[in-house]
Amino acid sequence: MKNIKLIKIYFLFVLALILQINHINAQNLVPNPSFEEYSACPDNLSQIDRVVNWYVFSHFLNSPDYFNSCATSSGVLVPQNGFGIQNASNGNAYCGIYCYSYNYLPPPYYYREILYSQLIEPMLIGFRYYFSLKVSLADNYGCAIDKLGVLFTTYNDTTISVINNFAHIYTNSIIDDNSNWTSIFGSFVADSNYQYIFIGNFFHDTLTSTTQANDCYAYYYIDDVCVSEDSLTCNLPTEIMNNNINDKIQIFPNPAKQKLFIESDNVDNIKNIMIFDSHGYLVGVYNNFKNDYIDIQNYKSGLYLIVIYTDCQHFSQKIIIN
What is the pTM of this model? Predict the structure, then answer.
């Protein structure tokens, strides 16, 4: 009888442990995802330091702003503030960043405001992760852009540039809605133990589409950030939950010599392709890809990373060119 009781206790313990593990895996890995936790209410602009677990990426003159209904200054109140009128997507707070600023700094420098945070736990290599984010264009800065998205890293070195024409998930569509919140979402398979999430525009001005050629200053509110192994946690649409881009795109041969073939169920879904060398430098960009191969005769022999982007996802594969 005693052995039966011990078996039951052991079974219940294992079951509880399994449920706990499943719960952990299904959680949002982003701490303070809606910026509701703060050390003090904002009373001025550039006070992202008052948001718990969120930081400014100190590249040039970054100064993300924090908005909250508890603010003591009208400039950073929710819903009406110095940039426009917008209710929070969730709760009482959100942040705001400049994602494009025309001619603020001369090329090759580009003014960007970027937020970052450390994930609750590092990503596991080979696991699929889902991401979603809510953005809204500010009323008083009506120039809209595309390329808003997220970059994951294994470091938080704020002295280097992350404006390298690469993001793990981003939108190729211009987001010009200043009345509602627009979702940016997608999924990818982690190829590193990423620990940090960066939010902003990581592309050069020349690769960023805008709604006006000159005097474009694009400012967006940011809210509801989610990263999870469970698509339901991030409230992704069904078509994204069930879509595995890795099953839809094939790259061959590998190693390759003259041509690198790309086979897809629908080549029109491919928006652009980027190739990085073994040092992480961008060495090839193919926008509006419509062919079934890439000519690689001019590439030096070595190891490369090819990244293929669709509307909301990306597929990456290491290749060898001889």
Answer: 0.70
Number of H helices, E strands in the chain: 2, 19
The verdict on residue 5 lying in a domain is no
> For residue 134, what are the domain limits?
48-238
29 CB contacts (<8 Å, ≥6 apart)? 119, 120, 121, 123, 129, 227, 228
What is the number of structural domains in the chain?
2
Residue 264: half-sphere exposure toward Cβ, Cα within 13 Å:
21
Distance CA 76, CA 290 (A): 46
* Same-domain pairing of 219 and 297: no
Q: Same structural domain for residues 176 and 280? A: no
Contact 151, 109 (CB under 8 A): no
93-101 and 217-228 beta bridge pairing = antiparallel
| Residue environment code for 173-208, b if the CB has 16+ CB neighbours within 10 A, otherwise e | bbbeebeebbbbbbbbbbeeebbbbbbbbbbbbeeb
Count how many residues are written for the chain: 322
Residues linked to residue 218 through DSSP beta bridges, in sequence order: 100, 142
* CATH code for position 265: 2.60.40.3080
Pair 177, 78 in one domain: yes
pLDDT, tens digit (0-9, with 9 covering 90-100), for 230-268:
888 888 875 554 444 555 688 899 999 999 998 877 655
Summarised one tens digit per residue, pLDDT across range 170-203 is 998 899 999 999 999 988 888 889 999 999 999 9
Phi–psi pair at 187, nearest 5 degrees:
-150, 160
pLDDT interval class at 108 (50, 70, 90): low
Within-domain flag for 2: no
Helix ranges restricted to H, the chain: 2-25, 238-241
d(CA 218, CA 65): 14
The answer on 192 and 59 residing in a single domain is yes
- 234 and 251 belong to one structural domain: no
Nearest to 276 by CA among 152, 158, 164: 164
